[in-house]
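> example.struct
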């Protein structure tokens, strides 16, 4: 329940209505069911164990009951209501265990979400473009951070520090051929770095492979719009949001070109990071040696790396999404030569580092600390700049329901950076602890120097951050308890005439109060993001000024010294534990179908949007699902002339709305929209105002012939869409459904009815009534074509079906 919506007065008892009636508009009618998060089966959606796939594949498909496959050829089948057809898309997000490993790409996905959280443009095209550029740069820093962390583990901690220390390498036989104590051909520092570069290079190659494979499957689904159909650009100075909502643009769900460009740029950035780590150490040594040739060659390689980095940044900033036209072009030269040039530089860097330098010894650690400080500083500056641009856009179209007053995008971008830091820092801290044996990484008391000082400072602020989060969490718990007590009287008033049951009342009120916590999420996200920014800045400043870990930065014997060292140790373990939980959860999901469905829910919410900022994020399933739904609605209504109601639950309602925006106007007037448990306004409207805010939802209400939304106050996800009635169009929102349907025991319900919350909306009698009313408001169905008889005539009894009646033909 939204805090902005006043508590309703106790409603009058509903007048009983017939559960079913004959529709006033007989003729072809189809109900296209779209399930929500967590996945669903066609058997459950259609309430029939005998289902048939009528069109689609094993990943996403349309299903009907076996008895309804040829319903279009039997007009009498439509007299009692629409023929149900289920669209199952759960395999797009949680189809196999390998997708559970996408949890490791969570920071990339969160950064991609920040791109879509910008406020409406309202004529400020340049500010909107700058917003997109800043988010893409934040995403680029995450790729560099991940690669730098892999270099830290493989090159610095393992090949440089441990292999260069006899105390560290003697107990690790797998490091024997690299150990400096062995004095073998590979024992020179440059050659050890060249061998260790295989690990981060393989990581970048894996990310490129996954992105390229999913790009070929997801971004290649063409929407049903012509290549030459383009939305006209607004005139200069036009402050309108646009001629059509953004999700209705021809190329919105077709982002192949941008993803290909970003994939090439991020791949090149990762490879260049590895090359810089390999060649940088050798170049620094050669500048202090007597070899002029090697010194000049090292400077040339470093200059080439800087030039390559500038080209990568230019490619990332140069072009954003192309949505006004279905853009089929690919920048093949750029996609090929940019990562190819980076790989060539890496080969040159490896050969340069492998040059024999007999007197070179690895001491201390590689200058990774400077690298991580620069990355952290760059991320902080980019997030602050993003906040300035977001506020500028928000002031043009302020709305009380917009999350964090337009700052949701910068807040989420900051969380993406924090997640990246936790995951990469956790790996480095745990590997250093493993290699250091009984020593403490970062203190210099063990056989190795340890990870960069900044990672120790970042670990030390994590317990502080948890304390900061604990305070509002306790506040929300107390507020929920108070709200539940206040709602008890409201619940009893809604079930007037029933004998009050304090236990039953408290349970219903507690579920309602808990469901209302969803509307408190923006404040919590803003608090965590702001605290992360301040504590992160403090960690960077402390590491930069002291150059020591927190436990040694405050002097020996001081009281704060012990607290700092304890915070560092606790934070280090928490960071490592967090990363281990990610890995073990992914492994469990590989073996456990229930865990796989749970992870699928995360992707259902987080991967709805196209990859506009980070090409290594999990793929956007809507780029397959939205064209599927659009093609099906357009082809069925065009072939049959019938009426169609698309019925979307939860996330399925978001897919249904996006598909309706893509329909031509002539088709859209033959389609009605029924949403239930829908997060269209409660989540998407608040967090993504440019795409599901008041303006786009009002435009959808005007363009769709009929729309009805059902919700419950016990639902933590769904809610009202808040679109007011206009002219002859009624209000979209039905009044809140009672949940449970019956308060106590009755003759019709002798057992207690469950509190359904977000599920089983079809079980409410209101559902069937509202669906029938939507069909009645649609234009009359056109006459169905008479199926042709076979040449043998009506007396032919070989059992063959008429032409066009095959289950596959209905697709």
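> example.seq
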């Amino acid at each position: 329940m939204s805090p902005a919506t006043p508590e309703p007065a106790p409603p009058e008892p509903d007048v009983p209505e017939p559960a079913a009636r004959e529709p006033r508009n007989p003729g072809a009618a189809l109900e296209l069911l779209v399930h929500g998060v967590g996945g669903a089966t066609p058997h459950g959606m259609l309430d029939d164990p005998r289902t048939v796939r009528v069109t689609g594949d094993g990943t996403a498909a349309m299903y009907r009951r076996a008895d309804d496959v040829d319903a279009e050829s039997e007009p009498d089948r439509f007299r009692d209501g629409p023929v149900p057809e289920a669209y199952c898309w759960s395999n797009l997000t949680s189809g196999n265990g390998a997708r559970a490993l996408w949890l490791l790409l969570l920071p990339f996905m969160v950064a991609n979400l920040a791109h879509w959280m910008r406020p409406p443009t309202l004529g400020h095209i340049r500010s909107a473009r700058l917003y997109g550029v800043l988010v893409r740069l934040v995403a680029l820093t995450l790729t560099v951070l991940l690669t730098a962390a892999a270099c830290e583990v493989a090159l610095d901690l393992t090949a440089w520090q441990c292999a260069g220390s006899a105390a560290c390498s003697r107990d690790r036989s797998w490091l024997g051929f690299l150990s400096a104590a062995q004095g073998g051909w590979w024992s020179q520092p440059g050659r050890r770095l060249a061998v260790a570069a295989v690990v981060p290079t393989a990581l970048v190659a894996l990310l490129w492979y996954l992105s390229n494979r999913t790009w070929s499957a997801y971004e290649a689904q063409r929407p049903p719009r012509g290549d030459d159909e383009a939305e006209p650009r607004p005139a200069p100075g036009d402050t309108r949001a646009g001629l059509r909502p953004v999700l209705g643009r021809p190329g919105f769900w077709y982002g192949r070109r941008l993803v290909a460009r970003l994939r090439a740029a991020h791949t090149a950035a990762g490879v260049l990071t590895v090359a810089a780590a390999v060649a940088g150490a050798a170049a620094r040594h050669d500048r202090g040696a007597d070899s002029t040739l090697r010194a000049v060659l090292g400077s040339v390689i470093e200059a080439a790396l800087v030039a390559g980095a500038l080209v990568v940044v230019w490619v990332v900033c140069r072009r954003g999404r192309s949505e006004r036209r279905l853009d089929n072009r690919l920048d093949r030269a750029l996609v090929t030569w940019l990562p190819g040039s980076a790989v060539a530089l890496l080969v040159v860097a490896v050969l340069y580092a492998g040059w024999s330098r007999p007197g070179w010894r690895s001491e201390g650690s590689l200058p990774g600390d400077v690298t991580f400080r620069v990355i952290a500083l760059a991320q902080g500056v980019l997030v602050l700049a993003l906040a300035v641009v977001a506020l500028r856009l928000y002031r043009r179209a302020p709305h009380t329901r917009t999350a964090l007053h337009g700052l949701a995008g910068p807040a989420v971008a900051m969380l993406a950076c924090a997640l990246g830091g936790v995951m990469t820092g956790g790996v480095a801290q745990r590997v250093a602890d493993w290699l250091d044996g009984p020593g403490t990484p970062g203190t210099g008391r063990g056989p190795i120097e340890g990870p960069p000082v900044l990672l120790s400072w970042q670990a030390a602020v994590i317990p502080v951050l948890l304390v900061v989060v604990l305070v509002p969490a306790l506040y929300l718990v107390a507020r929920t308890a108070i709200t539940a007590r206040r709602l008890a009287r409201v619940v009893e008033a809604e079930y007037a005439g029933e004998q009050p049951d304090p236990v039953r009342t408290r349970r219903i009120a507690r579920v309602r109060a808990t469901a209302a916590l969803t509307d408190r999420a923006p404040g919590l996200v803003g608090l965590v993001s702001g605290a992360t920014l301040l504590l992160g800045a403090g960690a960077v400043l402390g590491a930069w000024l002291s150059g020591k870990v927190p436990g040694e930065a405050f002097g020996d014997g001081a009281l704060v010294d012990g607290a700092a060292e304890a915070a560092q140790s606790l934070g280090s373990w928490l960071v490592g534990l967090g990363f281990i939980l990610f890995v073990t959860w992914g492994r469990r999901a590989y073996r456990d179908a229930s865990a796989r469905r749970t992870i699928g829910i995360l992707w259902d919410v987080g991967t709805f949007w196209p990859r506009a900022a980070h090409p290594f994020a999990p793929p956007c399933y809507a780029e397959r699902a939205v064209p599927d739904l659009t093609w099906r609605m357009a082809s069925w209504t065009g072939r049959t002339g019938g009426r169609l109601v698309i019925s979307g639950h939860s996330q399925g309602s978001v897919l249904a709305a996006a598909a309706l925006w893509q329909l031509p106007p002539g088709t859209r007037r033959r389609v009605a929209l029924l949403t239930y448990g829908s997060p269209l306004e409660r989540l998407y409207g608040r967090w993504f105002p440019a795409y599901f805010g008041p303006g786009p939802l009002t435009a959808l209400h005007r363009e769709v012939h009929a729309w009805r939304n059902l919700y419950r106050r016990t639902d933590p996800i769904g809610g009202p869409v808040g679109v007011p009635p206009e002219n002859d169009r009624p209000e979209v929102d039905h009044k809140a459904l009672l949940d449970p349907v019956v308060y106590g025991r009755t003759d019709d319900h002798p057992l207690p009815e469950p509190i359904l919350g977000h599920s089983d909306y079809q079980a409410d009698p209101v559902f069937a009534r509202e669906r029938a009313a939507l069909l009645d408001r649609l234009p009359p169905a056109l006459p169905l074509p008479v199926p042709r008889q076979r040449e043998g005539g009506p007396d032919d009894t070989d059992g063959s079906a008429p032409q066009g009646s095959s289950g596959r033909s209905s697709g």
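> remarks
The two ends are 40 Å apart (CA to CA).
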